[in-house]
Amino acid sequence: MRVHQIAARLRTLLGEEGDFATVLRGAGLVVIIRVLASAIGFASVILLARWMGSAQYGLYSFAIAWMVLLAYPATLGLHGAAVRFVAQYAAADDWQHVIGFMKVSSWLAFGCGALVATLAIGAVLLFKSHIDPAYVEPTIVALAGIPIVALTIVRSESIRGLGWLALAWGPYQLGQPLFLLIVTAIILAVAMQLTATMAVGASIVAYAASLIVQWGIVHGRLGTRSSIEHRIQLGPWLGVAVSFFWISLANMTLLQAGVIVVGIFLKPHDVAIYSAAAATSGLAALPTYAAVALGAPKFAALHAQHRRPELQALFTNIVRLTFWPSLTIAIVFVVFGYLVLRLFGPGFEQGYAVLLILTFGQLLSAFLGPVLNLLNMTGHHVLTARVHTTSAILGVLLGVVFTRMWGTVGTAVAFAAAMALGNACMTFFVVRTLEIYPSLPRG
């Protein structure tokens, strides 16, 4: 598709009345936040890799992967239920339940995070003799940060339920990596070195700083409503959260377990290479995020109104708008992947094959469309939980086998294949249960 054809198509879409035009016109803020967050996050990863060196960066990546992976189940899935319940209560001007949900979910996330952290640290100390000594210290520090990360996740999604997207994602996705760069730069200037343990500690401090800033602004916006008597419906909240618990755990496993598997079977240098390639390949998924963030509520509304033709049109248009940018990014990685990976430092270009494999997995997801979100928003979250969990288990099992056979390339093949099979299964169910058909993106 030529540039003028793309521009003409966008002008047509923006000028149309309809669900997709609404989503497209409202996506500006989301796009800005997502693009800036990805740019800052990617820059921070590059700088950390160069400041620490591949070995220390590998240790850091392994520890952070455990922290993020365990923080999501510590939320009990309440971050997924938050958008639904908080939005529902706020729309009904039921601030007693809004405040009740935000307070209870925050305490549960922090408390469960503390419990998970305690058990995980205990496990590390118990099996310390069977773990590479270099991993122990940064991993223990990272595990101690689980309560803060879990609290950050739940609060951000609760704020998103209020419709305050900039406040929900800004401090979390923009502020945290910025604070991390500032703190690590100060450490490097003072100590003249940056170890994995120091960087992990800086990451936790950055999460805490962004959380404090975010909550201070929220408290100011809520005003006197934050102190009203709150109401609690813990049963319904946890009932809905269960499915999101499994979905988020499976999703984080697919995203983070590759780094962990490499760390278990290979060297910190290999972890660094795989982590850099995985972070880079994630840029190919960026175009889908913005459209899905605002399109998902439209999926639910159209399904509830039994407007299947409009739902099909919205889904198809989202795929067509997001697939081509993802394909462009993938082509850039094919041509310039070596140069991109060299930004991380000498030797990181060894991850070129890993980058291509993981990017292909992201591209296939963009081609099939946001089927997971479509199923979740139309009442099929139990189905997606089962499929996603199966994919995650398959990814880990294949990862263990393939990593021992082919190294980091085997890890990439395992998790890319698991993700592809999961998306293919969900596409099948979308066609069979919703009668929404994927269509070839047109230029």
Can you tag this structure with a few keywords?
globular; mainly alpha; 18 helices; 84% helix; 443 residues; 2 domains
Give an account of the 3D structure:
The chain is globular. It is an all-alpha fold and 443 residues long. The model is unreliable at 10-17 (pLDDT under 50). Helices cover 84% and strands 0% of the residues. The chain folds into 2 domains: 1-50 and 235-443, no CATH class; 53-232, no CATH class.
Secondary structure layout:
Blueprint: H1 3-15, H2 19-26, H3 28-52, H4 54-74, H5 78-91, H6 95-126, H7 133-144, H8 146-161, H9 165-191, H10 196-222, H11 234-265, H12 268-281, H13 286-304, H14 308-342, H15 352-368, H16 371-377, H17 381-406, H18 408-434
Helix pairs in contact: 2-13, 3-4, 3-9, 3-12, 3-13, 4-7, 4-8, 4-10, 4-11, 4-12, 5-6, 5-8, 5-11, 6-7, 6-8, 7-10, 8-9, 8-10, 9-10, 11-12, 11-17, 11-18, 12-14, 12-15, 13-14, 14-15, 15-18, 16-17, 16-18, 17-18
Question: What can be said about this structure in brief?
Answer:
It is built from 18 helices and no strands.
